[in-house]
């Protein structure tokens, strides 16, 4: 059974039949690496009896936005992909970027999204050029900024806010903000120089991206302004070198199993980051009022329909029904949790 935090490095054993290279655009010390991905790679090595090993490269191959092509072309074998960093390329999984998906629990929504992907989204073929080991959603996105509290709909007006992808860009435009699509790794520098006023981010990014040192206001949105779709992908030729027995063993610890572990990790990191922000006392964080949420929902009401049309054009047969089912699955999981 895969357990987060079981190790701090993925060591490629010298006896491994297949040694794969992991390109990380996150810092090696990022908790996503040390607590989630490297322990997962250790588990891959364990369940294959040392035949498959995955080792992190000392430097990123390419950029955060180019990781799909890096793995597709075999410049690295494994990576963590954020589809939203290449807006418009992966339309089906933009579903995860829609606002107000009705849960702030990543443990709930992450494995549900993998199952949705496997059943409905993957067959469209947007990810056919790589092997998707797991597709999940990360923390629900809220707004943190260094200019003013966002208490009413007018407070969004003109703020330069970091966007994650196509869906969040559309949301920010609808709210009157100025979206700027950048990786989380660039947020701190852009905040300190004034190129950004704030960011749509999961709470864990307060610490990971050092926003806690710059922003002064935070507004927590029930259900989130978005969840970032993220995937662990492998080069197809590398996957095909693995025996069917070992492929089965890796599959058993991947998919929604890995997604749940990732979700638990994000929930822990979010809680810890909010505690850190509270301890510092430099950020005023509030829950969005019912009035603000209602106004935001009204402003962004057209986004679901727009995604549905794009998804139909991309080849998804009934996006509206899939979205409805996803919301129902989330509600059922939330009810079961309580």
From TrEMBL:
Q: What organism is the protein native to?
A: Aquibium pacificus
Could you read off the lineage of the organism from its UniProt record?
Bacteria, Pseudomonadati, Pseudomonadota, Alphaproteobacteria, Hyphomicrobiales
The alphabetical list of record keywords is: Signal
UniProt-recorded name of the protein: TRAP transporter substrate-binding protein
